[in-house]
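Translate sequence into C-alpha cells.
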Amino acid sequence: MNGNKKVKKSGSDQRLELILIVGMIIVGIIIAYPLLVVLSTSFSSPAAVMAGKVWLFPEDFSLSGYKAVFRNTDIWTGYRNSLFYMVAGTMINIIMTLMAAYPLSRADMPGSGPIMMLFTFTRKCWRRHRSTAAAMPNIFSKWCCLCPAR
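Result follows.
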C-alpha cells in the first residue's frame, strides 16, 4: 500500500473546512483587536488618549504610563508575592507528588488501588460540588462518595 496517496475531500468537507477557517479568523480578529487597542493606548501619551486620537497605532509615543505604574511600590509587592507563591506552590506540589509517586507505582503496596482512585478522581469530585458546576452531569458520580461535599 502506498503511503503517499492523499484522500480527496468531498465538497461538503471542503465547505466545512472553509467555514471553520473563516470562523477562526473572525474569532482571532475579535480577540486581537481589543488587545491591540490596549497596547497602543499604553504606549500613547495621556493627552492623545483623552482626545480620542488613539485607534490601532500609538499616537505621541510615551512611556509615562509604565513609569507611573512601576513607580508604585504595591506593584512590586504584588510581583514579589506572586513569585513567592509560584515557587513555594510548585516546590510543595513537586515534593508531594514525588512522595506519592513511588509507593503508588508499587503493585505490592497495600491499598494502592483506592489511593490511586482518590488521586485520579478527586478533581472531578471537587468540581461536582462547586456552585458553577452543580448542574453539570458527573460521569464519576459513584466515586464522589469518597470526597463528600462540605
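Note: The chain has five helices and no strands.
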